Amino acid sequence: MIKAGAIEKGQCLLMKDQPYLVTERDFVNPGKGSAFVKLKLKNLRTGATLRETLKTADSVETADVFDKDAQFLYEDDAGYHVMDSESYEQYVIPKEGLEQKGRFMREGETYRIKMWEQTAIDIVLPMKMAFVVTEAEDAIKGDTVTGATKTVVIETGISVRVPIFIKEGEKILVNTETAEYVERVND
Amino acid sequence: MEPNLARFRAALMRELRAFFSDRAFLEVETPRLAPYLIPEAHLEVFSTEYLRSGSSVPLYLIPSPELWLKQLIPRGYGNLFEIGKCFRNEEQMGSAHNPEFTMLEWYMLNADYRQSLQLFSELLQALCTALADSPGADASSLQRASQPVETVTVRDAVRTYGGIDLAEHGSDGSLRRAALQTGLSLGQDDDWNTVFDRLMLDMVEPQLPCDRPVALIDYPARVSTLATTAGSPSPDTAAAGDTAAAGLEYRTVERWELYLAGLELVNCYSEEIDTARIGEFFAREQQKKRTMGRSEHAVPQHFPAVFENSYPRCSGGAMGVDRLMMALTGRKRMNEVIFFSLSDTLLPR
Predict the structure, then answer these.
(1) What are B's interface residues with A at a Cβ cutoff of 8 A?
(2) Is the separation of the CB atoms in B318 and B330 below 8 Å?
(3) Dihedrals phi, psi of B321, to nearest 5 degrees
(4) Residue B243: how many CB atoms within 10 A of its CB?
(5) I want to staple B343 with a disulfide (CB 3.0 to 4.6 A). Which of A89, B93, B120, B149 is the partner?
(6) What's the pTM?
(7) Domain containing B333: what range?
(8) Neighbouring C-alpha atoms within 13 Å toward the C-beta of B283
(9) Residue of B92, B187, B197 lying closest to A33 (CB–CB)
(10) Per residue in B202-216, pLDDT tens?
(11) Is B28 inside any structural domain?
């Protein structure tokens, strides 16, 4: 338990039996009233956002959330199956709220996962990841409009808007939060 | 602080002084260190000690200059103002808080809170005109600050933005139930004042217009302050049946708070000058301080007596200068408009 007044951004809290990450925190102290802390929280299981106002003297339970490395094995209806890289223990992470990340994951690759009470609850992807372009139409000759783009498919099967000079077989960096093209990678 | 903002701040300080001096308010300088303080339950104080010939005397950094300015009024200096540092401990370092901050406080004699509001409206107009060409000026922020002040009663604001009529919910339980129905999450033992604070913080403040100054006026009398209770019965002091019978009728005090750009900027009263009621306020706040586990400090026992012998009717206002800087320059964080915030100067933990 900690006092709400001591809550820091980035901390994990247990609220309504759910683990939450503190994404924003501000203090408000009405001139003639008690002090409050205003929080913006992200549910680590569902991704849902919660706003809470607490008295700084209130007690809040912290959630013991930690990261570890795990290999992504496969996905099915139950969720994403991963294996702890050290203990080889296997976990299933429910897909709810993680669909966007799932579109960028490659089987056999190792990612950081978040653990809470013996269960894996989240996958932490790097902000930018490199992918091979598996399908791309050739640029139309004479199309010299600056900033022109086309849609290509990357190895995990999803579509990304890229500049027209990108060719099939090339590697590109993609922002995993926005699914936007960042740059071409030269091996 | 960016150099242009520093220049803007210096110009703002000059204009604040010019405005009050031009209206025959006398600028005074009172002590920052005090051997006693007005008890205010929600404020935690900074303590230090004065060492003299082997013994020590406890001293406190003032949370506001009210203690001194109210003692100066009967001495015949006329209208007063002071700009100086004030100190509030446990004031968390949020976007609009620093434990040490600059406060402007004024006292207008033979005037009430509405006359102070008129004065403050004129101050905003004067500042926006005088600072328009200053380095660091933000035209759109100044434009918003120069709009006519919109005045809304607290009761109307809570009704509009929270859907609750404060006058219909006199008891702790009744207001708590009404607030829970609107979806507010509350603690089991939250009392009327805590629920009122939450309604203001979560419902009213986020929805107040930001494109002009807004004065919330006529605060519920249950919020303990040194403001006078509203004199003549107004629609806002009318009590509904059951509530009146239970002695929980909705009464208001002559107080306003002004919001600009989403910031709580000014707090102003028609000042309480009744010795007995000031004594009651002292007793009530001291009791609450003990209950809340606040640090003990000496209290000026002579203070209520200052108001005996025809103390003039007056209105006092206090404004956070750093917040005014934020509002006039369009900045969202206080540490952008002060030279060294405490969080910047503290060593990393």
Answers:
(1) 40, 42, 88, 90-97, 185, 187, 193-194, 196-198, 200-202, 223-225, 257, 264, 267, 318
(2) no
(3) -70, -35
(4) 17
(5) B93
(6) 0.78
(7) 3-149+271-345
(8) 6
(9) B197
(10) 999 999 999 999 999
(11) yes
